[in-house]
Amino acid sequence: MKTKGFIALTLALSLLTACSGKEEKKGAQEELPVVKLQTVYEEDVTQNSEYTATVEAFKTNNISSNSGARIKRLLVDVGSHVRAGQSVVILDDVNVSQQRMGIDQQRIALANLKRDLDRAKELVKIGGGTQQTVDQLQAQYDAQARAIDSSNRTLRTMQENTVLTSPVSGVVTQKLYDAGDLPAGPILVIEQQQPLKVVVSVNESDYPKVKVGMPVDVKLDTYGDEIFPGSVHIIHPTIDVRSRTFQVEITINNSSNKVHTGMFARVNFNFGTSHSVVVPDRAIQKQMGSGIRYVYVYNNDGTVEFREVQLGQRLENRYEVLDGLTNGTQVVTEGQSHLTNGAKVQVQK
């Protein structure tokens, strides 16, 4: 009887041990982090780069005079549209009158010198004068003639500065003096607004891609999603060593006069397409305290691997990957919070 009891006890203990082992094994499986996976793939990605800037006048001219005359009349006001060559300011011509009177006096003096020179030459011919006197009078005559030429150039400049014209077609954006003022600087500011320009600071990495004449799309916050076609006008040849950017001047055809200087602009460069790996945005993680982005890659042995990635553009619910992943790689999209590098995981179907 004792033998039978011992055997029964042994069998019972064996069954308990087996059951306990199964439960422990089952519990160990349940303790594995549960994750969801997604396979990354390749697609054609449009290579866009967007930059912000402020709309500027294509050219800005300060209308001023160096004659020192008072303003007689202003023919335009702020907001006036002007044509190239159009008269915009008339100054007092008192200085012009004085200059003309001075030239008349110089001409009288020149005529007197001419008469004395001719007389001296005649005296030399008859032996009553000297060649030295002739040479002296000739030098005085030539100097006076040069002085009249200089005075005439000054007169032309003064006449040009009496009636001031606009060198460009544009809009008057500032009026700094009024009629009767004696200006000590620019009287008007005229901006050429057809076309306009936007100067953007472009990343150094895009330097080989930007070409003169290439089209760009310009959006203005004032007009929402409306696109204003532009083109690259000038590429500055130097790189800013602090920002690692270079400047590009974009021109905008403003025939409708909807665009104005000072507007906030978003300039989009389209550099074509690239066949790139894309990854779901849910897979991307950011390392605390740094700008490092990473994903967890699933390996065939059931473990996950920390993988740093370099991202390109955001494409709705996914990112372009520039470096770090290859086509067909499986990445974790859910359950990353409990993962560490090399951890074994359980994949949720």
Account of the 3D structure:
By secondary structure, this protein is α+β, with helices and mostly antiparallel strands. The protein has 3 domains: 31-47 and 275-347, conserved putative lor/sdh protein from methanococcus maripaludis s2 fold (Beta Barrel); 49-57 and 193-272, Elongation Factor Tu (Ef-tu), domain 3 (Beta Barrel), CATH 2.40.30; 59-171. 26% of the residues lie in helices and 40% in strands. It has helices at 2-30, 94-126, 131-160; strands at residues 34-39, 41-63, 71-74, 81-82, 87-91, 163-165, 170-175, 188-203, 215-220, 227-235, 245-252, 264-280, 285-286, 293-298, 304-315, 318-323, 330-334, 346-347. The strands form 3 sheets. A 6-stranded antiparallel β-barrel has the order 2-8-11-10-9-12. Strand 13 (285-286) and strand 14 (293-298) form a beta hairpin. It is elongated and about 130 Å long.
Tell me roughly what share of residues is in helical segments: 25-40%
In terms of structural class, how would the helical and strand content be classed?
alpha+beta
Radius of gyration: 43 Å
- SSE string: HEEEEEHHEEEEEEEEEEEEE
Oligomer classification:
single chain
- Percent of residues in beta strands: 35-45%
Q: Count helical runs.
A: 3
Number of domains: 3
> Distance N terminus to C terminus?
54 Å
Describe the global form: elongated
Strand line-up of the largest beta sheet: 2-8-11-10-9-12
